[in-house]
Amino acid sequence: MFVRRSAAVLAATAVIGTAFAPAALADESPGATPSQAFPSALYGSTDPTYDGVWRQSLALLAQDSVGVEPAKKSVDWLVGQQCESGAFAAYRPDPSAKCDAKTKVDTNSTAAALQALEALDASDAVTGAAVKWLKSVQNKDGGWGYFPGTPSDTNSTSVVIGALDAGDTDPKDVPSKDDRTPYDALLGLSVPCDETGGGAFAFQPDKKGKLAANADATAAGVLGALGEGLDADPEEDGPDKASPKASQCAGGDSFTIEDAAANGALYLAGAVAKNGYLKSSLPGAEDQPDYGNTADTVVALAAAGRTADTGKPLAWLEKNSGTWAAKSGPAAYAQLIFAANATGTDPRAFGGADLVKQLGATGPAATSSDASTAPADEKNDKDEQDNASDEDDGGVSLWWIIGVGLVGGIGIGFLLSGRNKKQQP
Question: Could you tell me which CATH class the domain 3-420 is placed in?
Answer without folding.
Answer: mainly alpha
